[in-house]
Amino acid sequence: MKDERPIRAAIVIGTRPEAIKMAPVVRALRARPGRFEALLVSTGQHREMLRQVLEAFDLRPDADLDVMKPGQDLFDVTAASLLGMRDVLRSARPHAVLVQGDTTTAMAAALAAFYERIPCGHVEAGLRTGNRLLPFPEEMNRLLADRLAGVHFAPTQGAADALIAEGVDRAGIHVTGNTVVDALLWVRQRLRERPVPLPVPEAELQGRRLVLVTGHRRESFGETFRGICRAILRVVRAHPDVVVVYPVHLNPSVDGPVRELLGREPRVVLAPPVGYLQFVSLLDRAHLVLTDSGGVQEEAPSFAKPVLVMRDVTERPEGVQAGVARLVGTSEEGIFAGTSELLDDAEAYGRMARGANPYGDGRAAERIADILER
User: 30, 86, 95, 218: which one is catalytic?
Assistant: First the structure.
């Protein structure tokens, strides 16, 4: 006889990107109350930014591990997340654990599920740069999560092929698209009904092109990050019609050099970390995007915004192959030259802005729910 009891799934998040990409999965599972019981677990790895995202999707954690403490390093976050997940899993006894992406939260939660012999599904499985130190520690986190998981929700065929090449059982690999597109399209519709103000007055943007910048990668800290800031400053001074909006990460290794080198330039708006609704509004308003983020590489093509990736390698090659993203590296000269080309050459800009999003169609979460139900 078929078991009709709801499947209790623990969906684990800890950072803003995880919350964005798992919110559609939580909503999809909760839309089937007879088949699923979705338990949202937060490690609190990015507490304030996480709260903003959850509010945007009308979600709140069922369990909060509150792992972050002042002065912690990766050892502390990993240990606290692993121990916290032990307690949650032993008390809730879920039938499955779902983790997302490449964070310490994802890796620790997948390991906890393995220790408790609970099946684990990895959303956004199979992304690879081929260098376990780039990005650090994300590349190793996702490698470990994929080894610990039994079901792999690959966002693209390329990600699925990477898993197959590593010997992962094909029966456990499913190409679903990326849930970030689901989240983006849902939020865009919400913003059409209830717009939110931008962190820069609209009057300052009239007749100007907005360049949206996000940058926070650990491997760029130090002189490399200072070079990124100098490149942004050169772009603004070389293009009088450009305004840069940069929501600055709270990490002192980011906030310090950004404010030192860019804080006195009137056409560089250094905003505090913005909520997801505001970020989507900025993305929609932007002319182009400079980023070292993985998620932004996936989001911007849905709005036909060219993406210049301030990294030497990317685990998301589909955007580069589709012509909607370009690697410009982390050097001051490379970033300045790549950005200036798109600002000065309308044909080069048009080629990138006309591309299609290779990362999904907005139905990834429904596919994941279908697979879990089967």
Answer: 218
Catalytic residue among 18, 37, 124, 366: 124
Q: Which structural domain, as residue segments, surrounds residue 46? A: 7-178+360-373
Domain identity same for 13 and 73: yes
Q: Which CATH number covers residue 254?
A: 3.40.50.2000
Q: Which of 138, 139, 299, 315 is catalytic?
A: 138
One domain, residues 164 and 19: yes
The pLDDT tens digits for 89-134 are 999 999 999 999 999 999 999 999 999 999 999 999 999 999 999 8
Q: Taking the C-alpha atoms of 84, 169, 180 and 310 in order, what is their torsion angle to the nearest 10 degrees?
A: 90
Is residue 260 annotated as part of the catalytic site, yes or no?
no
**194 in a domain, yes or no?**
no
122 included as an active-site residue: no
Question: Which residue of the set 102, 146, 182, 315 is catalytic?
Answer: 102
Q: CA gyration radius for the chain? A: 20
Q: Could you confirm whether 287 is annotated as catalytic?
A: no
pTM of this prediction? 0.87
From the candidates 46, 128, 216, 311, which is the catalytic residue? 216
46 catalytic? Reply is no
Q: Which amino acid is at 267?
A: R
Pairing label, strands 7-13, 36-42: parallel
In tens, the pLDDT along 270-308 reads 988 888 999 999 999 999 999 998 889 999 999 999 999
| Number of independent structural domains in the chain | 2
Closest CA to 244 of 227, 260, 265, 259: 265
Could you tell me if 75 and 47 are in contact, meaning their C-beta atoms sit under 8 angstroms apart? no
**Do 132 and 252 lie in a common domain?**
no
Domain-embedded: residue 205:
yes
Active site residue 192: no
237 and 331 assigned to the same domain:
yes
Q: Is 152 a catalytic residue?
A: no
Selecting among 239, 249, 267, 367, the annotated active-site residue is 249
